[in-house]
Every structure is written in C-alpha cells, then in structure tokens.
C-alpha cells in the first residue's frame, strides 16, 4: 500500500522568537525607553488596520482633509520642536555609517548621543544602565497594562476622534508577524491618543528627511563587504522620532521593491516561516512564484523595527507548540538576546558597541536551522530525539516517513517545512511533535476475518509438505533480537511512545532537526539558464525545482552555448548543500547524460537513478587480461581428475530464445517403480572468480545482471557469461550438480541420498520455452529450431521433457494446495526495429514449460539451503509475512467489495475460485490488492535455523539461491559455501556484501520496470494514443488510482487533470467526475474505466492519462 494518500500539508504555527543571527532588541542609544515605547507603538497597529481595510488607498490629501485643526497644530508644534532639537545636536550626534569608526570615535559619538538624548530622559543610576532594560523582558500584556495606565494621565482624543484622524499612508510591507487577534487588546490600542500624534509626527519626519536622504548615498562598510546596495540610502537619524531605528524612505519604487522581495522570500509551499515576517494576507499582496534564482537579495534596504514592535514579537507564544519551536530555534542558533543587541541595516547589523556585524535578516529565513551535533547527541542521550532514514512519497512530495526502531508504525513527516531540507534516503534526527499534531489513520469498521485466515500457517497438509520437501532441520525458537546500544532515557522515551501508540489509530508526526548523513544519490533532469547560476530541474518529483549549480561546475558546452545546451541535454546532478535561507538546494553537475529524447540517454538516466551506472563501464584491462580465451580454453587435466564426468548423460537446457547466459541445465533418468533420478546442473562460476581478486571485487560491486528491453548489462565479462561459464550445447563445461530421487507424483524419496558435487557436463540441446511447450502439448512432428547434438535424438529428449513435465505438474499442484502463494504480475515484451524503437508490444507469456523449470530450480535451491544449514552458516533467501496492518487493510477493502475468503481453502485455491467466478479482470485486481502489502524477500546470513528464516510465499522453512551464479553474486557466495562443506576450504562471508546483494537486486528490479514503462511510452509516442481497460484500486477526495490491467502497473490521477468538475462522497467513498464532454463517472473501488494513453510533447517524456466513458457491456 502506498504511503500518504493526498494529505494536505498542515499549517505550521509561527514562532515569534528572532531567528538565528538577528537580535531580538534594538539599542535605544540613550533614549528613554518608556517614551520610545509610547511614541512608537502606535504605527504598528495603525499599519495593521490599514493593511486590512485601506490597502491601496494612499491619498494623503484626503486623509489630511479630515484631520482636525487642533491635531494639525499639534503636529506642527511637535515637528518644529523636533527640527530645533535636531539642528542643535547635528554636529555631535550624527554618526557617519559610510566609514568605520575607531574606538575613540565610537566612544565619543556614543557619549555625545547619550548626552543629547538625556535632555529629555530621566536620569538613571549606573546599576540601572548596566543591566538589561526592563522593557526587553516585558510581554505584550505587560506593555498593554503599562500603556493603559499612561493613557489615564495623557490627554488626547476619544476613540471616535482618533479613527477620524487616521490618514492612510503609502503602501508598504511590514516585516512584523502579528500575534493572534485579541479583540480586547485591539480596542485598547485604538483608544490611545498618542498613536495619532505619533503617526502625524512620522509623516512630517518622512517629509523633512527626504531631501536629506537624497543627498547622501550610504554604504555599510565597516570592514565588511555587504554586496550591492539599493539606489536609495540607509540613514540613521538621531531625532527623537528616528532613534527607534526606522530607516525612512518613501520612494514608491523602493516600496514596491521591498514588497516584492518580502513576498518572494516568504513563499514556501503553503507553509509559513517561523521568522518574524508578516504573511501575504497581512501585507495585502499576492504571493509571487519562485524566481529562477531564489537567493536572498543582497543589500536590500529593510525597514528597521522600533522597540515596541520588537517587544510585541517577543511576547509569550500562544501555544505550547510555539513555545517548543521557539526553544528549538534558540537552541539551534545559540542566540542570547541578553548579551547582544543589534540594529539591522540591510545585511549588516550594528551591535550595542557600534561595531558592524554580519546578520541574516528575518526575510531570508525559509527553513529552521539544523541543531549542532552537540545538541543532537545530548538530545539522543536524553530521549528527546530519534533517528531513522527518510522516505518521501514519489507521488506526493509533502509526505515523508521514517521507520524508528522500537515503534510498530512509521513516523510521519508532514510537509516540506517539517522535512527541513532532508531528501529521500537521508539519515535524519527527528523531534516528535506534540500528540495533538499527530495523524489519525483510517479507522476500520471491523477486523477482517479473511486477513487472519490467509496468513494462518497450514496444519491440514503436514503429510503433504513432508512428502514434498522431506525437511531434515527443525527450527529453534528465535532468540530475542539484540537491541542496539541506546541511552536509558532514549529507551524509556521510545517505550513510552510505543505504549501510547498501542491499540490506537494514531500515527506520530515529527520534524527534522538534523541530517546525520546526506544521500549521495544523483538525479537526472534538465538545465535552465539562470542569471548567476544554472538551474537544475530534476525529473524526480520529490526534489524541489531550481537547484542552483555554479556556472563554473557546468560543462564547457554550457558556458559557451547555455540556451542550446539547456534545451537539448540531460544532466546528472547531485545535491551538495542547502542553506536555510533558500527554498532549493545547491548542487553540482556530475556528468552529462546525453541528448534529450534519445533512447540511450533515457537508459543511462534510469540506470543512474538506480545506482546501476557502473554496469555501463567496461571491465578493466587487468580483468580482461586475466581471463582465458574463449576459443582455445580447455578443461585442465587437474579438474578432470577431481570432478565427476557426466558428459555422456542426456543433459539439456530450457531458456528464452534470446538467452546467452545459460547457467542451468537438467537431466532425468528413470530408475524403478516410477522413481527417477533428477539432476540440476549449474555453471561453476566460482571456479573462474577466485575470492579477493579484482574480478571478484568487480562482480561484488555489480552484484547482478540487469535485463532491459533492448540489452543485457552483465555482472561478469562476456567471455565468461556467454562462453566459458555458459552451458552451451556440445561443449564441455564445469558445473556444480545436485542429484536426488523423486517419484512420479512429485514426492521425494525420503531414504534416498542427495548428492552434491562438482562435475563436467556437455549439454546436448539448447532448448527454448516455445519448443518445450510444444512437446508438453503433445506435438510430435514439428521442426526444432535447434537440433540435438552428440548423437542424442529428439525422441529421447522429448521423453525427458514429458517426464519432467509430469512430475512438475503434480508437484506444483500439491505445493499450492499446501499453502504456497504466487501472485503473478504481467511483464511486457517489445519488438524493436533496427533503430531500437518499439514497433510492437505484447504481454510476455508464462507457460507450463516455464513452470517446469521453476519447480526443479526451487527444489534444488531448497536442498542446497538444507545442506548448508547442516554444515555451518548459510546465505538464505527469506521472505517475511505481510505487515499485519497493511494486510488487514487490503482485506478490509476486498471484503467491502464482496470478496471474502473461504476458511476451508488456501489463498491460492481461493484466488483460482475468484478467477472462475468473477473473471480475469477481477482476479488481476484482487492479486494486485494482495501484492502491495507483501514484504520483499531478502538475503540473510543464518548460523542456526529459526522461524524468522521462513519463506512466506513458498511456504518453506528455509530457502536460498543457488541456480543463477552467472547473473547473481549471492549465488556465487552460496557456491563457495557449498564447496566449503565438500572440501573444507575457508570462505569469507561479510554482512555488508549480503546487504549490497539485496540493494542491487532491488535496484535492478526497479530499473527493469522503469525500462518497460519507458518503452511503453516510446511505443505510444511512435504509434499514437491507445485505449485500454483499467480498474479503480484507490479513491480519494481529489485523486484516484487505477490499475492498468494489460501493463501491470498502477497510476494515480488527479481529478482536476481529467474532469471539469468533481465531487467526493466520503460516506460511500465514491468520487463523481464530470468529463469535458459532459459525461459523468462514479469511481469506486473495482469500478472499470476506459483510459486513453498519450504522451507529453516536451521533457520529460511521460504518459498522459485521459478518461473516457466505458463502452457498453464493460
């Protein structure tokens, strides 16, 4: 079952704490704090009301017309007084910020300013000056109470008169995050008469300082390069109105620039930053889409905040979640507002000692800072944090999941804000969110009875299982898994968390606070031309767009003809870093994949995304030179002496017609009383791959051959896999053979010995599946594509095939009747033209001849696993049962559609009944439902057999892979272990190598499936759109998932992409669609739909799905 079904990203509460690198308070430079508070608190609330009610209405003339004459007189008087003070104190108080000050100049300027400001400020004791100002620790409620008390002694206008006086100002963007609305506090603020006076004074100050601003062009150059500065200046005024650190500028162009910059830095995929910035709604403007290059604007003039605004921002969080986020933010930044105060001017901050320091402005914060390693280690030891690998939903980037050891369900990472710059495959440290933010999983009406029946081990067929497999080893009770060494606090934390999850439908959510290990996986995509860097858009939808790549890291062709390169080339890039100030990471160009829209480039791209690009590299000259020539190699005499010679036996192979790496062959010899000696002969690859050699290390790195539509990428050099190791007809080859006795009914002869040993064989016929099937079908007179050799007749080989077919048929029937499971998935087969383009397509047929080979290979693998366990460690292939919750969920949906399992049958028998009763469409859909929750089989090292090593699908207590050493490195390991049991040679067995076998096998499987889909897309591009039947296998409020029955894969489709109108009924779980032609469709589980498949015209080349009304009779 896919994780995350179209969950909308939750809105994250805003943090009111200052971000890392930005001070929480501004120095007063000697001004009375209480006066500054009362004088500056008004513009904040006034600006907020103006954004809500009068945005865009900036006609100051109209506003001034409604102001009373008494108010204007007061303004003129106050402004005149302000100008007189400014004129008197200009010489000693002005500080030239365009050049750095030495220590004496800084001290003198500061003393002069303090002396000037003290004319209007009450005296303070030395102790009071040395300590932190009391206003810095006051909450918003404290400020409100103090100002309310001040209003009682301050004459002013009434609330009504105040509203009449408020004049709209020019449109500007505030950079303050407002707290949650409070009606009472808002009314109290409206009643403050000094707000009106303060607003008038500020307008007058703007007008008076405009000419002065135009005469000066200021830079912040105190030893720090601040980058380009805007055309307009940044000036620190020393008047009583401007000591609140407001950088005044009324130019319309700059106001629009600040507005645009604020919008661009705030937009982060429907999440709001914790930094103290206003939202787009508060600003009254619409968010812009991301620019090509979204680095923060350097040198942008930002309006510095007054103290009242800072105190509002520092007020107590309204929720515990906000408080926790503030605490985490402070931990990450290490900021301490009590030790350092700064005034922000663009990208430069001036601290309390007038020393310029680099600071990041609040507008540039997009993601939270990652916590330092010291805090992470402390948090892990205390149980505050947990660790795991992040998985991101391929269909929905907002959904991330982490498996945490000790928890019975994944932790959900909701939204890119909580993912905090982590990518799929990263090892991350998580902070679990409060339980109120957890996700509630779907609650089932009742527990499925079929789920428990289908998973129950079979007890009615013990005699049949004994006859089929004759097991010689009994499993012991599994020892408790040794838990990783963890701090006691962490163990207690996980145990407590698991106790809360037990018997609940809750799924914990978390946010990423640190990335322990960044995934090095490269991504394929296209390049766009940016202003300062190349912009990379990956085809993988889990990555953000516009990954910045330095131009110097790009190929020379891009630097010469960037636009042409961007339109015609696929690139392979890797993420290198990701700043919290950017929406997208930085990257580097690993290599150029090739021309866009070519088959070779697409193949190279899918190999790269599955870590299989090394398969395209040629084998080194040292490896090639170490191998014998295929034309003159002969079996050494030393091997002839120690091996069993089976060259005169009737041994033959059955493989696909185009197969070149023939690693298995079979033989059958009748004995007596319907008993046969069966032989499975496997190429002895381990003879040529000596442990520790360069060839062995290369095979170990590749681990598997990759079978694509148009080519095979081998694990071994072709001289081995196609010649020296391949069991070709009429040539002598080295083999590892297993011989055992069987009856005609498929049962093993329990008292007959099983022989393992190295042999020399000579295959007499290279048969294909089609020829073998015609023999099994009873055809006698037909021409064989490949004739037998070595004097062996067609009749002899045909009799062997029929005998093997009869035994395999009986064995297969009993195997599935006793609990084995096989869920078939269709595989596509393409016919290519000379240019490699697909011109025909069909489903690859699975016939009885395929089943014949499968049965005897399964038995040989089982017998080898048993032999290894009897003599020492073994590499087993184990398959766990489906995860209980997912398995139950699948059956819940099946039972809701009327499919309920009969408790007297096995799963395979019940599936056969579904096919007979409901048809192949229903059977394929049911199989798909049951396949999704199935676990993936894996290789594992076992010293002693336990129930954990059981193979669920085969219903076997133990199993391994022995029969394909040419294309699987795990089989090579098994051959070496088997030889060790026979000769006593030592074998080096490492868990890391086994783990790589698992990873590469999965990568190979994914690459093959993606290649099938790639050629299907190219086939449709070449031949035109096709229409096919699909079945609905998932329904959501805004999307649905269909299973394309003919192609064997599912596709999620957004309703808005295929319908003009849609409506979801959450009671009946039905999605109603209205198509462009007016037709209506009701989509529910198992509903059949007709789907038309076309392709995109540009990059990437992908399938496009359209719905059409179902045809009558379907």
From TrEMBL:
Tell me any Pfam family this protein matches.
Answer: Dis3l2_C_term
Identify the keywords attached in UniProt to this record, alphabetized. Answer: Exonuclease, Hydrolase, Nuclease, RNA-binding
- UniProt family annotation: Belongs to the RNR ribonuclease family.
InterPro entries membership: Dis3_CSD2, Dis3l2-like_C, NA-bd_OB-fold, RNase_II/R, RNase_II/R_CS, RNR_Ribonuclease, Rrp44_CSD1
User: Where do the segments described as Disordered lie?
Assistant: 1-342
An annotated GO cellular component: P-body
Q: Where is the composition biased (Low complexity)?
A: 321-333
Q: Which PROSITE patterns match?
A: RIBONUCLEASE_II
The answer to whether the entry has keyword Transferase is no
Q: Where does the RNB domain lie? A: 643-984
A single Gene Ontology molecular function, please? RNA binding
> For this chain's UniProt record, which GO biological process terms are given?
mRNA catabolic process
**Protein's name according to its UniProt entry:** RNB domain-containing protein
Q: Which organism is it from?
A: Aphanomyces euteiches
Task: Point to the regions of Basic residues compositional bias.
Answer: 46-55, 157-169, 193-205
Q: What is the lineage of its organism?
A: Eukaryota, Sar, Stramenopiles, Oomycota, Saprolegniomycetes
Q: Where is the composition biased (Polar residues)?
A: 31-40, 113-125, 228-250, 262-278
Q: Which residues form a coiled coil?
A: none
Ranges of compositional bias, category Basic and acidic residues: 72-81, 99-108, 126-135, 170-181, 208-217, 279-296
